[in-house]
Amino acid sequence: MGSQWDTHSSEFPDGPSQRADVMQESSAMTTRSESRQSLGSLASDEIVFHPKTFKGHSSPKKDPPTPEPKGDDWEALEVGKENVNLEKATRRRSRTKKEVLKMGGSEVTTASKPARRKHAKKLSSGNAPYSYSCTLNESHQSSVYGVMFNPYLPCDEEYYMATCGSNQVNVYRLTDDGKKPEHVVQLIDSNKEECFYALTWAIDEIIRTFVLVVGGAKGIIRVIDPMAKKTISTLRGHGESVNEIRTSPMNSMIVASASKDRTARVWNVALQNCLAIYGGSEGHLDEVISLDFHHTQDFLLTASMDHTIRVWDLRPETEVGKRIQESVDPSKHESFATLPSIENHFSLAVAKDVHTNYVDCARFYGNFIISKSCENQIVLWRFGGFDQPVSGQGTLLRTETYVLHTAWVEVPKSSIWFIKFDIDPDNKYLAVGNEEGTVKLVDLHSIKPEAKKPDYALSCPETGRVCVRQTAFSPDGKVLVSSGEGGVIVRYDRK
């Protein structure tokens, strides 16, 4: 069957013409190709429009051509309806399931439903720059694994935020007064076995709108237009679950995905094309949990359960770099329907001695790298200069493991995997959660070589010991949001 969206009382900030102006400021727009290739294996969605829609959509815009539905349907859910019976998504591996993880000879016990505290703990420590504002609970009551603000809209007294967890994707509007987020859109996959782990915002420059790119347990990546309340396309290729998706800072239609199938893939979401596959016999030996683009888009960072972190080459002179540049050229769009993906088995550099456990989050910090492992610590470190070969005898075909450890940060109670951090737009604060429902803030401008503890701790009196899976800063850094077990989302505002 087709799929449906239910929209709600909230309105979107910009009409089509205003939205085009916003996107021109954030990314160069391209025109629609006259013939857009339709892939028979892609699933599309039939949409039912309701009278309450986003502002600027009194009349629906013309939809791009889409293939016929082929399973993977969506179901509608009315926000606020109390008697909806939802089947909870299957809990997977050690993300939520109670089990003993054997890692490097040690054992770590995790619990899916930690006991709540009898007494509310202190909201913040010291003179924390953020303070608790409100709490939101999603209806599925499962883990909210992904949360991200839309970076392509101006922060004019309001923000738009998307979350994913269980088989749901939700969009909220937040105002700057610290009030509870307003539910705007909810989308539910009809496959009760689906569980979304990752999402990112991107821009489809062919239809000239921003989109949500989401993926999870089934390994299928969906490209969603939240304004038209429909799935534009599905990106198929991963053989296992998708753990993280990131958008290129240089080309907003280019995204990368990390998967349990031990590979990372680079996609053009507008062309529905997989440009490159990173992995193989010389790649990661276990599932890839995290990845990130360098701010120049010249390098891709991947982190894995095999305890290693790899850097892959995307520079313009490489085959992949050329393919990426061609994919954003409108004059060459037609040729991409038949082009095979480029396979790259050899990373530019690999770090094997930074962590001794699962590496579940890694980000570029300028030419440095910040990585987190399931060993209660975050490390700031670097290879040699990115414009030169790595130190020692490493080459593109024989990678080097030598790294320079710069600083350590202790993050207690974060030994289970899939706890991810975020860095604010000013590159000053790093926010990371833990198993006890606390968000730790690290001042990166005052970090020192010796091991240190986080500078501040933020907590919520209403949630107790609920594991925090993800944190996200608003584009202007004024709002910090955390998400985690039990469908809990907590908002903190800058003082």
From TrEMBL:
<feature type="compositionally biased region" description="Basic and acidic residues">
    <location>
        <begin position="60"/>
        <end position="89"/>
    </location>
</feature>
<dbReference type="InterPro" id="IPR036322">
    <property type="entry name" value="WD40_repeat_dom_sf"/>
</dbReference>
<comment type="similarity">
    <text>Belongs to the WD repeat ESC family.</text>
</comment>
<keyword id="KW-0677">Repeat</keyword>
<feature type="compositionally biased region" description="Polar residues">
    <location>
        <begin position="24"/>
        <end position="41"/>
    </location>
</feature>
<keyword id="KW-0805">Transcription regulation</keyword>
<dbReference type="InterPro" id="IPR020472">
    <property type="entry name" value="WD40_PAC1"/>
</dbReference>
<dbReference type="InterPro" id="IPR001680">
    <property type="entry name" value="WD40_rpt"/>
</dbReference>
<protein>
    <submittedName>
        <fullName>(pine wood nematode) hypothetical protein</fullName>
    </submittedName>
</protein>
<feature type="repeat" description="WD">
    <location>
        <begin position="235"/>
        <end position="269"/>
    </location>
</feature>
<keyword id="KW-0804">Transcription</keyword>
<keyword id="KW-0853">WD repeat</keyword>
<dbReference type="InterPro" id="IPR019775">
    <property type="entry name" value="WD40_repeat_CS"/>
</dbReference>
<feature type="repeat" description="WD">
    <location>
        <begin position="281"/>
        <end position="322"/>
    </location>
</feature>
<feature type="region of interest" description="Disordered">
    <location>
        <begin position="1"/>
        <end position="125"/>
    </location>
</feature>
<dbReference type="InterPro" id="IPR015943">
    <property type="entry name" value="WD40/YVTN_repeat-like_dom_sf"/>
</dbReference>
<dbReference type="InterPro" id="IPR051243">
    <property type="entry name" value="PcG_WD-repeat"/>
</dbReference>
<dbReference type="Pfam" id="PF00400">
    <property type="entry name" value="WD40"/>
</dbReference>
